[in-house]
Design goal:
This protein has a five-stranded mixed sheet with strand order 2-1-3-4-5, with helices on both faces. The chain starts with a helix and ends in an 11-residue tail after the last helix. The chain has one domain: Cytidine Deaminase, domain 2 (3-Layer(aba) Sandwich). Helices cover 26% and strands 22% of the residues. Strand 4 and strand 5 form a beta hairpin. It is an alpha+beta fold.
Length: 136
């Protein structure tokens, strides 16, 4: 696990906008070109209209511009509190979003704020992703 990604995801988590659930999540992604982008979850009163930290990080990557390696995710770190003692993995929608910009072997680090966690491969989290191996 890239400790810089952990630190960035942990820091951006503190800036999450989660007034309803109070469940703050931070995500940081490193692209194949080496750039790092992060994001936090954003909630609003119309619950389905909010978005996840992973979505925010991907949006930051897209907004930064670039093509090819600048838009392919090499590693992901998500920092969130545990729920009932279990690590918080990306939701189904975020798994698909991450898969579309990564490969089956991309590591996804799921970490609690203390730094304890587990690393999954993208294909472990979403084994039947749409177009897993294709990159935009």
């Amino acid at each position: 696990m890239d400790s810089a990604l952990f630190e960035q995801a942990k820091a951006v988590r503190e800036r999450a906008h989660a007034p309803y659930s109070r469940f703050q999540v931070g995500a940081a992604i490193r692209t194949e070109s080496g750039t790092v982008h992060s994001g936090a979850n954003v909630e609003n009163a119309s619950y389905p209209e909010g978005w996840c930290a992973e979505t925010s990080a991907i949006a930051a990557m897209i907004a930064a511009g670039g093509e090819g390696a600048a838009r392919r995710i090499a590693e992901v770190t998500v920092v969130a509190d545990r729920i009932d003692g279990r690590l918080t993995t990306p939701c189904g929608g975020c798994r698909q979003r991450l898969a579309e910009f990564s490969t089956a072997a991309t590591p996804v680090n799921v970490i609690d704020p203390s730094g304890a966690g587990h690393t999954y491969r993208m294909d472990e989290l979403l084994p039947a992703a749409f177009a897993m191996e294709e990159t935009p």
